[in-house]
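task queued by scheduler; priority normal; single chain, no ligands, no partner chains; default sampling; output format set to structure tokens
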Amino acid sequence: MSNVPSITLNNGVVMPQLGFGVWQVPDDEATAAVTTALEAGYRSIDTATVYENEVGTGKALASTDIAREELFVTTKLWNSASETWTREAVLREFDASLERLGLDYVDLYLIHWPRAMREDYVTIYRTLVEIAGSGRAKAIGVSNFKQPQLERVIADTSFVPAVNQIELHPNFPQAELRAFHAEHGIATEAWSPLGQGRGLLEDPTLARVAAKHGKSPAQIVLRWHLQLGNVAIPKSVTPSRIKENIDVTGFELDADDLAAIAGLDTGTRLGPDPDEFDWS
């Protein structure tokens, strides 16, 4: 077992602060990747309908001897622009995710994108509140929501999301949104926590901090997430990197390290702007 720390969500559910993401992992490779992650000590697995690997992920979960209550499984509703998302449509999609995963419940269920130009996300979130009440999702939340959409669903339902999963890495640390989350008791979860391998890990600043601690740049960035209080879900299909990414609890970044990493903020998104995203 690893020594991955946990956070307590606003409804009392405990969530590991470091999880394993399976974005862009083909379904026929997901079983092996998730199995390797579980063997390395990960207990939190993050998938989504649109990743098309819930079946492979579920096979890994079914084959492990780790007790279900020790696992934390997240999936997400792909609220496609091609459909009007009624309550019945949301419940149908949630049931389909459970069937593909082979589970009776998930630990966290998220709306994948706000699609802010539509009104669907309000109806969807109301239905997620209903799902949470049934116990079939231990916690619910959102992904890629900005402050206005968060304020809207909170005002509409009086039910604060447990998590907002957003693009977040040293080049795009989202300080203002993280501050809003902290004020309202919403956990910040980072997707693409390592910057998608698009230059961040080659930065000389990270190289210097990594050399100082005898760690890799990726380990430095993941340690940065943990110390900021973020949940991070790095993804890899390489067994050595899967193991390396979870080995981030035996050292501490000091004030100089954190200041140096803060200087990497360029305000640069790698993924779509949620205000504009409405792909089918």
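post-processing summary
- The chain has a mean pLDDT of 97.
- The longest strand covers residues 72-77.
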